[in-house]
């Protein structure tokens, strides 16, 4: 007897234990999709509290498998009443736990079924790409309308505008009226996007309706990034995550079609070189393609393989970057009067055998040569003439037999001798005669500055430019202890100058500085 009771107790425990299989999300859905889904829920006075709760329970089950986030699925909910209200927008919840908790706290609005005003909010704000808090650019947008079908208003026009704007329209009606109206507003195919169901039987359509949404927002895209001359990276959404299987990747040169026109259709790739193949695990989302030819068009095909679910092949075309041969850039630094540094890149010791640098003064100077190893990417050119333009050419001799050269003009700095002599002679109580010795023939002039060290405005400075043939000038109305400076001006720079301080008293008539 005790044995029978123990068996009955164990059987009851097994029957009453919660089924984890029923609560687990459908396999293959979690990482499948990317898009914005807005639920338009009728919560007017014609919908009872019980019906409203059943609608929210349906939504909870419908969206529970999806991964939420900025790069996946985002969900918003707008309730319809006399004054429609956005309960939460797309940027509110990025986790299922937060979203599911929010659905349990939503209360009906009551009042009239003002669906037209709600659709106006949808069009102008919630599902408008680029609007603050609105839908994302270049991603699927889905509007799911849950209604009891009672007096929805004149919704045909507003919903047609949304449909024309690229929004996918789906409807679930718990009533059985207004079929013709609802049939007009949904996106084709009608049989997948319009469902009439009793309020207590909504769970019957959950999987079928979810599959219809998945078909709209399935992220069946493959991207190419990090393209170089000989490699590229494929990136895709891991649709096999959680499933058993693998990815097969095929890639080859993009052949020419009829008449020499390039084609990207994978079904016409019957000629040319064979496909190269890679295999990646089910949890992979990237693959690196190597051994590619530079400046060449390629096609790549991603084939998810799984016995649990069928997936479409994805394909993409891309072009590798042109081959970059050194030198691709030549730069100049550290310019001096008799030297300048020349650098180049990229450094390619595996491809280059040696470098040579030749340079000559323009227009007809003697040509000089410098031979450098393949591991060097700069050299300092010495013994150059000051204030002279040179043509410098860097040539790389590649192991393939090719040579590539790049030229650049460089200029050495001019010689800017300092001022050799400066004298001040007082003339009266507030004037001085300023005299100096001239410099070289390529002078452009002189720059005089003076300021009063004891003036009422400390630091006040005056300046004067004089032509190159001037060797003296008179300054008047100077403040006591005025400091006078003279600097030579050359074509590219100002030379080092000299300064003297004016002293206005009877026993100091001539003073100055001699270098």
TrEMBL record:
Question: Could you confirm whether the keyword Phosphoprotein appears in this record?
Answer: yes
Domain VWFA residue range list: 36-213
Which Pfam families would you find in this protein's record?
Answer: fn3 (PF00041), VWA (PF00092)
Q: Name one GO biological process term.
A: regulation of cartilage development
Q: Where is the signal peptide?
A: 1-21
PROSITE patterns found in the cross-reference section: FN3 (PS50853), VWFA (PS50234)
Provide this UniProt record's keywords sorted from A to Z.
Basement membrane, Disulfide bond, Extracellular matrix, Phosphoprotein, Repeat, Secreted, Signal
Q: What does this protein do?
A: Promotes matrix assembly. Involved in the organization of skeletal muscles and in the formation of neuromuscular junctions.
Entry protein name: von Willebrand factor A domain-containing protein 1
At the highest ranks, the source species' classification is: Eukaryota, Metazoa, Chordata, Craniata, Vertebrata
